[in-house]
Amino acid sequence: MDILPQIIVSGLAAGGVYGLVALGFVLIYKATSILNLATGEFMTLGAFVCLTVMTQAHVPFSLAMVATLVFAALLGIVLERVLLRPLIGEPIISVIMVTIGLASILKGLTHIIWSPEHRAFPPIFPPEPLDLGFAIVPSGLLWGFISAMVCMFIFTAVFRYTRTGLAMRATASNQQAALSMGISVKGVFALSWSFAAITAAIGGVIIGNISGISIYLGNIGLKVLSVIILGGLDSIVGAILGGFIIGILENLAGVYLGSGTKEVVPFVILVIIIMIRPYGMFGKEIIERV
Amino acid sequence: MRCGDFRESYLEDEKIFQSTFVKVWLVILLVGLVTLPLFANDYVMYVANQIGFAVIAAVGLNLLTGCTGQISLGHAAFIGVGGYATAVLITRFGIPFWFALPLAGLISAGVGMVIGIPSLRVKGLYLCIATLAAQFILEYVFINWEGVTQGIRGINVPPPRIGSFVFATEKSFYYLTLVVVVAAVGFARNILRTKWGRAFVAIRDRDLAAEMMGIDLFRHKLIAFALSSFYAGVAGGLWVSFMKIVTPEHFPFSRSIEYLAMIIVGGLGSVLGSIFGAIFMVLVPELLNVATGSLKGFFPNLTQIFIPMKEVIFGFLIVGFLIFEPHGLAEIWHRIKNFFSLWPFSY
User: Fold this and answer.
1) Out of A97, A226, A289, closest to residue B264 by CB
2) CA atoms within 13 A on the CB side of A26
3) Which CATH number, 1.10.287, 1.20.120, 1.20.1070, 1.10.3470, labels domain A4-276?
4) Which of A82, A87, A104 is best to mutate for the B interface (most B CBs within 10 A)?
5) B93 touches chain A (CB under 8 A)
6) CA distance A29 to chain B (A)
7) Cα distance between residue A279 and residue A267, in whole Å
8) Which residues contact residue A203 at a Cβ distance below 8 angstroms, ignoring those fewer than 6 apart?
9) pLDDT in tens, B72-119
10) Domain map of chain A by residue range?
11) Could you give the CA distance from residue B321 to residue B267 in angstroms, rounded to a whole number?
């Protein structure tokens, strides 16, 4: 059997999860023009909370997931209120550095609370792999891909067709105009942070299902930066497509250039894109050139 | 009696040493630093050396991030480039340390300029992501370019020597570090009051306005990148010569964040701030180390959480200073100093 289709299919499946995490970045960026470098830590935290609720409280996965989502939403709101709101109007450099500090805090805390050892997630999806004829999709990747797609579909729909989504889009395009139309901009900020925390937590749980969780799960958050740069920082479609492309390229590199390159190829792609087309595939071309 | 800080000419404003008082205290500080090894033990000297390397690297980063406004998330990788360059130049090419160190600085500056090229086209957020990518790519190179870096085994570096005198102990190396630190700080303090330094600050404050006034943005940004990486390279070279070995795990992403934390805590755009920040951020983990050591009897698993504790504390310091004291320790120092020097008539 040819190996190439298999690689591409695995890449697509991994890319679906990347796309979901990238969505978290894009949602925050669109509403608040902030790049949240702590997204990776949101993922780790979400996965650990879900695992702990499942194993300690012995509740089924669906309930644990609900608890995780509530936790993530609260986390997003609290962080926005405590850390980001005092910095409204400060230079972008300070805000980015605050998210870096936040990442450091969350990383240390997860390390202290849940020691660094690697853990397996109890199986929550049916274990049968899907045989496509030309390629076999392992069950974890398959269900991960499906859930990522469903979540993306829901978030995109909310963003596009509900009043809340309309308020978020209005805030993204012009904060003052949105304010004068009676939209609570602060509420939208809090909402986008909790949305982002929720997508990151779901992404974390899915990845935890595929490959187990450890405190280093969050490193994927930095890798996803290449996805959003490729897709365009403010484009939801770009985040999804970029996720697929990066997933496939990464898998190709892992097979044909040696497995170590899997970690570094996304960053190489990132640098190339920043040099030739910084606004990505679908981003708005409003980058200030100097 | 002094009741304010008045200056009557630009010359006065640009003076490095603002008053005789400062000069006297600087001399006293210098004498104290020179005589420190006479009454300090090896551990204190080890920490003093670490502070020295951190000061050099932090001053470099502050020139780029604090003064020019170009955020860099890859400073540790540039320090690594300097460290590896020094190690390779000494062991592979037999170049003596005294030439290898500045050469390593230049190599590091070269790499920094390559990374800085995107700053021609993009800024702010995008540049910050580009330097982050550089950090990971360089880390990958350190581990996988076996032919030069010897991978994870690392390279053993002989200590520097003059004639038959070898800088092998903490105390002897301290003098070497001290000389480089004084030179580095002096240079940074001076460059900030030249045409170039003012151009850096102008770019940070408003790049379009700076360009309108005839500052070549690309050139000055690249120079800032080169300068900053040169400092990093020198700090890295000194560091590996002191540790006598260079391995890839010494230059992780978390260290880049530590340096950012140093300049934020110390004060962005201030040379004095970088010094304060470096001292503070080196001493905090050491004190934490001492504290965990003495509390070990009561909480036996305390040493396991030492590293994450450090991360949490650094994170809180970054966030706390950015929200409550954006100008850092340098500003606090300034306020305290003014309070005493202008007391009781501070207007």
Assistant:
1) A97
2) 36
3) 1.10.3470
4) A104
5) no
6) 11
7) 16
8) A17, A20, A21, A24, A43, A46, A148
9) 889 999 999 999 999 999 998 988 999 999 999 999 999 999 888 876
10) 4-276
11) 9
When the pLDDT of each residue in chain A is averaged and rounded to a whole number, the result is 84
Taking an 8 Å cut-off on Cβ atoms, the answer to whether B312 and A103 are in contact is: no
Question: Number of Cβ pairs closer than 8 Å across A and B?
Answer: 137
Is the CB of B117 less than 8 angstroms away from the CB of A270?
A: no
Residue of chain B whose alpha carbon sits nearest to that of A88: B323
Does residue B322 belong to the interface with chain A, where contact is any CB pair within 8 Å? yes
Q: Which residue has the tokens 């981003």?
A: A283
Find out whether B267 and B329 touch, Cβ atoms under 8 Å: yes
| Closest alpha carbon to A35 in B242, B129, B23 | B129
Mean pLDDT for the stretch of residues B336-344: 80
Quote ipTM for the complex: 0.85
CA distance A104 to chain B (A): 5
Q: Which domains does chain B have, with CATH numbers?
A: 10-342 (1.10.3470)
Place of tokens 């000061």: B55
**Nearest by CB: B315 against A35, A101, A112:** A101
- Label residues B294-329 b or e (16+ Cβ within 10 Å = b): eeeeeeeebeebeebbbbbbbbebbbebbbeeebbb
The pLDDT score that the predictor gives to residue B178 is 94
